[in-house]
Amino acid sequence: MPSLECLPSREAKGYQRKRKMINPLLMQPAHRVLPLLRAGEISSVELVRAALDWIAEADPDLGAFLYVAEARAMARAISIDKARHQGEEVGPLAGLPVALKDNMCQRDTPTTCGSRILEGFRSPYDATVVRKLEEAGAVILGKCNMDEFAMGSSTENSAFQQTRNPWDLERVPGGSSGGSAAAVTAGEVYLSLGSDTGGSIRQPASFCGLPGMKPTYGRVSRYGLVAFASSLDQIGAFARNIPDLALAMQTISGHDSLDSTSLPEAVPDYLGALQREPGALRVGVAKDQLALEGLSPSVRQIFEEAIAKLAGLGFLLEEVTLPHASYGLPTYYLIAPAECSANLARFDGIRYGLREEGRDLFDQYCRTRRQGFGAEVRRRIMVGTYALSAGYREAFYLKAQKVRTLIRQDFTEAFKRVDLIALPTTPTVAFRFGERTEDPLSMYMADLFTIPISLAGLPALSLPIDWIPPEEGEGPPMPVGMQLVGPAMAETRVLQAAYCYEKSSGLHDLIPSFVNDRKGLRFDPQQCSQIWGQI
Ligand code: GLN
Question: pLDDT tens digits for 345-361?
Answer without folding.
Answer: 999 988 888 999 999 99
